[in-house]
Sequence to fold (145 residues):
Amino acid sequence: MSVSSKEGLLHRLKRIIIGPLISFFTVTKYVFVKRPTIEYPTKTIIFPDRFRGVLEVDDELCIGCGICAKVCPNTCIFMVPYEKGKPAMIPEIDLQHCMFCGLCVDYCPPQAIYHTHVVSIIGFKREDLYLDQKKVTRVQELEYK
Ligand code: SF4
Ligand code: SF4
Fold:
């Protein structure tokens, strides 16, 4: 057998044996690594403080200025007369179009609108994803959790 054919054989053997061995060890090491996923919804993770979940409005802080609605890039905030009377106007949010950018939160003067850690936005109808004034002030209490 010539030298070049020996080298070719060696090269092929390396490909046949070493290649699968590398693949095997690459895959099997993940058997012993902690899984990054969880069995939601039976288990939940603790989100970082700055996590951007579903928005909520504190009607005791809101002054009804409407800045949140003006800065929203997706125009999914609508100012409506507040049934409780104070503030006179309150934001309602259409979650179908919210991209959780946080601009409304950043621009709110009294920090009355904020992201919660609520992530499950469940609905059977499009209207279920509209946070009217009754829902938008109680997001954390509702079944959106
Ligand atoms: S998070 Fe962004 S897209 Fe959603 S309501 Fe606020 S400004 Fe609009
Ligand atoms: S949530 Fe903030 S920005 Fe929006 S109307 Fe109320 S006070 Fe103004």
User: Anything to note?
Assistant: The chain has four helices and five strands.
